[in-house]
Amino acid sequence: MHSLKFLLPLSLLAQSASATIRFGCSQLVTQRFDPLVTPGEVAPHVHQIIGGNAFNLSMDPNEDYAETATCTTCRFKEDKSNYWTAVLYFKHSNGSYIRVPQKPNHLVGDTKGGHTVYYIAGYPPFQKVTAFAKGFRMITGNPMIRTKGDRDPNDVTSNAITFRCWTSDEWLGPSNLLAPGVGEYDSVGLPTKFCPSGIRSNIFFPTCWDGKNLDSPDHFSHMAYPTGPVDSRLGIIWHEGPCPATHPVKVPTILYEIAWDTAIFKDDWPTDGSQPLIMSMGDPTGFGQHGDYVFGWEGDSLQRAMDNCKDSFGTPENCPELTLLTDEEMNSCTQPALVPEKVEGEYISALPGCNPEQHGPEPATMVPNCGAPSTTIGAVPTQSYTAPPILPSANCVPGVVWTPNGILSPR
Ligand SMILES: *[C@@H]1O[C@H](CO)[C@@H](O)[C@H](O)[C@H]1NC(C)=O
Ligand SMILES: *[C@@H]1O[C@H](CO)[C@@H](O)[C@H](O)[C@H]1NC(C)=O
Known about the structure:
Elements: E1 20-25, E2 27-31, E3 47-51, H1 65-68, E4 82-86, E5 88-91, E6 97-99, E7 115-120, E8 137-141, E9 161-165, E10 186-187, E11 199-204, E12 208-209, E13 223-224, E14 249-250, E15 253-260, E16 277-279, E17 290-294, H2 301-308, H3 327-331, E18 400-402, E19 408-410
Antiparallel strand pairs: 1-7, 2-3, 3-4, 4-17, 5-6, 5-16, 7-15, 8-17, 9-10, 9-11, 11-15, 12-13, 12-14, 18-19
The structure holds 2-acetamido-2-deoxy-beta-D-glucopyranose (NAG) (2 copies).
């Protein structure tokens, strides 16, 4: 007989001591900014950003953003980190695109857009983890790839990014009983059929740090996923494999859960079996899903939370180390979009930033000199914003090259 934990939803694990915090964050802004990949330049594709309002086109690792930010869209007042992800569009049969709204996840409150963030210190038993430090940042996933193998127990990375097809709205409905990345409702690419209650994107960041570098040129190699094998009934969230010797320091596992309200497009869903969803980088497969993180917790607040908040489900109210904000406080923290283009809320004729649909399986390529708004003088409204120095690159070619397999490297 299987151990009970194979069958239990995450919700029922509260009896075992394991530090997790799980919280909703609302949208700060949605626009083509990516201070890690294209600092100082408008990014090639649209992102939704959540977290502290010190988010900017460039973010200096020496700056203490926990001090600079005056509000955050996340549940805990101490957390001025920024978290960003690509956005999803629905393609109408007439060829126009509209952003798929992000809805609150289960049990996170009434957040406006945004997504859910977890910091996990290992599921039972509780593990001591080292919190990230000021200046830490990382990316996982690769927006240029258009094919991937299936989940492989011996390759932890292959289990890191998945999509849940929700068949019902209830928290404990049949499609929500297992951990993210586990079971028949999860796929490595975007679901290819209509999901009656929407889709959840699950992004697990690597949890092993080299112990030295707060960042790396590709924003990934200072981190590593733990070694396998992953139990396919438990997934990466329960995974206890050791860190590789090159990256020996266990940090909290960050998980993003993004709930897309694809169900509102039911009446316009294609009847010919085609898949009308496409990510902002022109990716209809979902294999290019990725997430970015810039640490911004006040002082030692994250370390204290990971040491002392022993609630396996990570309910914010059960973490007295941290200060709760109300939904209203989170929702009122916003930034104006500064790139002068329409990215959401109405049908648009093309994905912003020159992102033609690229179905793969070969990696996507950038469109050079595409003429989309960039940081050229006048493109960003000067009354509210002074653009940082312009880097000498064409509009749509970011200051990096994408490696076919890994993430990205500086040019
Ligand atoms: C972003 O950076 C610019 C240029 O350094 C600065 O003028 C602006 O105040 C910053 N915005 C925020 C929200 O910090
Ligand atoms: C496509 O349909 C949507 C929804 O009815 C509409 O808003 C949009 O303008 C249409 N686009 C074109 C090119 O007709």
